[in-house]
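ingest -> validate -> predict -> emit
validate: passed (alphabet ok, no gaps, 953 aa)
predict: started
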Amino acid sequence: MVEHTDRFRTVPTQSQTAENPLRKKSRSVAGQVFVLQVAVVLLLVLGAILALVLESRHASETEARNRSVAVAETFAHSPGIIAALESPNPTAILQPLTEAARGPAGVDFIVVMNTHGIRYTHPLPDRIGKPFVGTIGPSLAGHVYTESVYGPLGHEVQAIVPVKASDGSVVGLVSAGLKVKNVTTAGDRQLPVILGAGAVALAVATTGSALIARRLKRQTRGLGPAEMTQMYEHHDAVLHAVREGVVIVGQDGRLLLANDEARELLGLPADAEGLHVSELRNLDPDTVELFLSGREATDEMHRCGGRLLAVSQRRTDRHRGAMGTVATIRDSTELLALTGKAEVAGNRLALLYEAGVGIGTTLDVVRTAEELARAAVPGLADFVTVDLADPVMQGDEPTGTGRELRRVTVHGIREDHPFYPPGKLTAFVPSTPQARGLDSGRSQVVPDLSVARGWQVQDPEWTRRVVEYGVHSLITTPLTARGIVLGIANFWRSQKPEPFDEEDRSLAEELVARAAVSIDNARRYTREHAMAVTLQRSLLPRALPDQSALDVAHRYLPAQSGVSGDWFDVIPLPSSRVALVVGDVVGHGLHAAATMGRLRTAVHNFSALDLPPDELLGHLDELVDRIDQEEADSGIGTGVTGATCLYAIYDPVSQLCTIARAGHPAPALLRPDGSVDFPELPIGPPLGVGGLPFETAQIHLAEGTQIVLYTDGLIEERTRDFDVGMELLRQALVSRQDRQPEENCRAVLDALLPARPQDDVALLIARTQVLGAEHVAEREVPFDPAAVAEIRAWTAAKLDEWDLSDLEFGTELILSELVTNAIRYASPPVHLRLLRDRGLICEVSDGSSTSPHLRYAASMDEGGRGLFLVAQLTKRWGTRYSPQGKIIWAEQPLPALATDPATDPATDPATDPDGSGSGSGKGPSGPLPVASHRSEDTAPAPASAAVPWIGGG
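emit:
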């Protein structure tokens, strides 16, 4: 059995580990091979040494000859040599020169001779005058000649050079040379170096041979050639006999080895080994990618022809991966059929999983039906149609047993389908599978629509087109939730040739069951959302009241996820003032909407008392805290989890806007010059926190300034910061002073809101108007009862100027009563102001903080009837307080000639939404209130009263 390792090493057997003769013989052979290697290396080194010695000797002789020629030629051409030869005694001149020159020149002798070879100089003086030992013939002919001779000094290497006269004739000869023993001595000096280099080379070669032999021995596990041959034969036998394919691929992607089984399984040709894997045409692309990638794999399934192969792959060198990969291949074709079934089951599970994730992502009935259709195409059917009962679309449960359903979605593999379009209402006849499914509550399978007579009865023309289109099979499954049939889903098959079977029906029922629960949840949400929206819209203002101080535009957009607690309001106040309110209750749903309604009603009630903004928010804060406490004590409800509010009062006479806020964003002011700013206002805690007072701020607003109030849903969004939203709001308003508030509302919403806002938005934009000086008359009142007559005369003159003479009598009576009461029961200063707006408003202010109350006077009482008369003569009256005291005001409707009846506050109930005004009295048409407290004017009127006929107050 072969052990598959990274190098195909076999596990040593007992015969391999024991000390057998074969292993001993292998070791002997290995030793002989090593000795032979050392001998060969030694011979090579000795040959190299011999070659170096010979080369050194040859180089030395060549050097000696060259030096001899150079010295002889130098001396032969020296200046004065010819003159010396022609002198009477050449020896006396030349002998000292030659002896002085031969030492520095590095030669053993320099001999000068005549043309007959008789020496003039010699290192041995007794040799002077004797014939030269050597060949002089070539030199006499003008040539340089070198030779090796045995002369007086022994074995010599000498050069003979001619000395030529100016005419080219030879007049003498010069010979220079060295003794041979001196030449060989120079070569012998190099011999130790040559021998040392040879020894080093021998040592290196021997060590290298030993290391290589040791490495080979380690890699072969001490096996010799015989054992290696035997191991190769065993591996070859195993590789070709095993019933498992083995493939080895080199690092360069070439096929190095493939056994017989691998060739058969992969369909490899006979010459496959050596080819690149990508050149093997029969391999599947995935298999080629695996072999070339070098990655490890275990039982990875690959198709090859009609076979299913399990491939495992490992690197041959586990640490570096430089030797390629080895793969083993098993035939798993018998698992192919099981794999097909498992694939079908896996596809069904994947379809159910995707349906579970993709169906019911929104609480929208139609969207959920579309998600069901998309989930089933093309995994189960080629086309899907969904029909629902009309009440389901509105959020209600289906009523009765009717079979009328409305088509809500059609989805399929093609757009040109032959089915009824969405929106068509269909009444299914009893013979159709849809009707049978609705009656029984069970799925109906129609394998062949071309022969389904009961289905064709529904609409012969339509069913004929469906069959001609290629649709041949149908599954119709009722959408049932909590025992209620909501509609029906139809699965059609056209492209797939096989008809629907029982497994398809079970899958369809599973899909429809999941979708039915989501559709029912969406239906119930639709119903609750509609109820919440209806409640919320009923709690919000249906129409803004008529007033002259502000030109108002507003928007309210509920969130896509449900209604919330944002609200706004415009409340007319006495003296032509108007209150603007914007609030926000945290949360969504009915509870938030109901809480918003309670807070809005409370704001209306508190504004009827004409409280300043900080006091009104204080009372509202106490109310929220009391609501939380009541619901906490009762154990029901969740209280007010958080609420903010901004309350502002604008006075068109003084052009002052008084603002207080409880945790609400500051308003934006679009000035008449087109600039936009966010005023720094004191911010109080949200409503219900308690413990901290609220503060007010007054801002002077030029005429035409637009006040922009909003809730946080306008500027806060998950994809941007709060500061970014504020900047977007500023950019949407800046340089737009020419636009009307209605246009600014559209521009702001377009610039800041996404397609599907996550929070509801309340937006209120009001452009200020001014009640000019021509509509206002005021004066100080002397603190003297006699001043009442003067006040009546001044009032009559002012009313004549305003063309309001019809109101003189009632106005004089009202002011007489109010001024008399202020002088008699209050403290100075007393101030009178008349305002001509949609009505005539009379205001009397004094320095007292006590308020009069309407009451019935007894028949014997001398006073107490003044306020009764005021209430009868005015539309409404009341009292408001200021830091300097109080103001008692009374409002009369203008005559028909002085105002447009369409905008007359006396005929418009919107100016008095709560039906009681903002004071304690009503006009002549209203019931008279019963006073429960006595008024200030309980003292009897003095006999000297200025106006005795009005009852003396």
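Residues 21-76 form the longest helix (56 residues).
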